[in-house]
Amino acid sequence: MTEYERWLQQELDDKDLTEELLSVKDQPEEINDRFYRDLEFGTGGLRGVIGAGTNRMNVYTVRKATQGLANYLLKHGDGKPQSVAIAHDSRNKGVLFSQQSAAVLAANGIKAYLYPQLMPTPSLSYAVRHLQCNAGICVTASHNPAKYNGYKAYGSDGCQVTADMADGIMNEINSLDIFSDVKKMDFEEGVKSGMIEYIGEETVSAFLDDVYQESLIGDASNLKLVYTPLNGSGKMCVTRILDRIGVKDITIVPEQSEPDGNFPTCPYPNPEIREALQKGLELCEKVKPDLLLATDPDCDRVGIAVNQNDAYVLMTGNEVGVLLMDFIARVKKEQGRLPARPVAVTTIVSTDMVDPVAKDYGVELRRCLTGFKYIGDIIAELEEKGEEDRYLLGFEESYGYLSGGYVRDKDAVDGSMLICEMASYYKKKGMTLVDAMNALYEKYGYYVNDVCSYGFEGEDGMKTMNGIMDTLRKNPPAEIAGAKVTGRSDYLESVSYGDKEGKIDLPKSNVLEYRMETGCKLIVRPSGTEPKIKIYLSGKGATRAESEAVVAKMKEAVPALLGI
Q1: In this structure, how many other beta carbons lie within 10 angstroms of the beta carbon of residue 435?
Q2: What pTM value is reported for the model?
Q3: Choosing from 83, 101, 125, 142, which is the catalytic residue?
């Protein structure tokens, strides 16, 4: 309440905040939710509901975070000039937050390079490296609902910040008063002074040129496409890259074509879920394309639906990842371009089906924690050794893909291009991507994966989440869905028990994994960016029906496992 009263007494720049504070004056629970904590800055930066308070995304929390970043850069910069690249997507307040971030940096003597238009998140990772910046900021909440915005921070390598850098920035943020310790400059004054500079077309073109270098077949002109940017930032870059590979027959979903942070036709703009694709699917019934392509608001994830006998089949991120792994290795082998000792990277929660596919092509498959920054770290390691040519693909089950080292984040511009080339390749063989996937299932077995999540809003929700993880650690289950647990891994303790006894050589993370005698697997992980717990289910049977039944049985057992 003290902090609430202090905010009320301020003459706030953003009048929306004053109106909100007054609207909740007689609602102690609402006040508590806005002020019971500060938004936490981690390796994913900040993310939260837009609004008034220390636990909200607003111009003051954004400025404070940027001041913390500025202090960190100046302390660790060895006295050298520092610079930061900034981008934003279509989220509400995105322009304001990105401009105010630039203004704070400029006031601290740090050069800010700012995209003048909304751009995909991967283009921010690209700009950091291309402009040789010391850090980057992308104002985005990815695929979260419209009430959210966020602030992703990047290091000089174009990866999202490391845990050590995030801790260092957080320490700086915690030392600041949100009103009195933040340096400010008028944005337009910053532009006039040269401390804020707009990023030009040269950088955009260079980004698209480097994406195009990842093209495998060059001509996908036989493809007919419906595309939706889901009211986000993907349209310009995706349509430009598809034009370069010959995809001319593109119909863009009209209701989702232009930027709109309210996402009026898909309240949850996530290409992983059918509701977000509904408008696109309706248009497909009229246009009859080969493929529906959907990129999320910040254009780092891409989802598809495939025309299979005039019915549109949604494919999962795991399926597309396996298809891309096979396609890239297959085509490079056909072209005589498959490198010696090739490397692919995926996460601990992605499908096990990719293992036998990689083995067939002699590809070394590396697994890392969830978060594309960890995939980016492996690309950087290869690059440092002069072995970047070994890298084929990195993917996450959550619809994120990257086939080149030109950025250090998942890239739906690259993913869209490769998926269209893959669909074109199989179309020439009289096959759809569903046909191609079924062929892989027949060869490698029916791996079925599913994800379920449970939301825990507010202070009580956070306590509940922590309690669930503590209980699972203290009392690990002996069986799940009637199947004996034969092994488990605790990534926070970095140790595995049972069938894979030993240390885990990965950074510590609040993740629990259970392996069953049936070959099934269940992973529990609190989301790093949303107030929810995610459960990843993996099963394999002799037939698809058998695999689906096993996974469905595990899914039914999840509430009891979590004690909810």
Answers
A1: 13
A2: 0.95
A3: 142
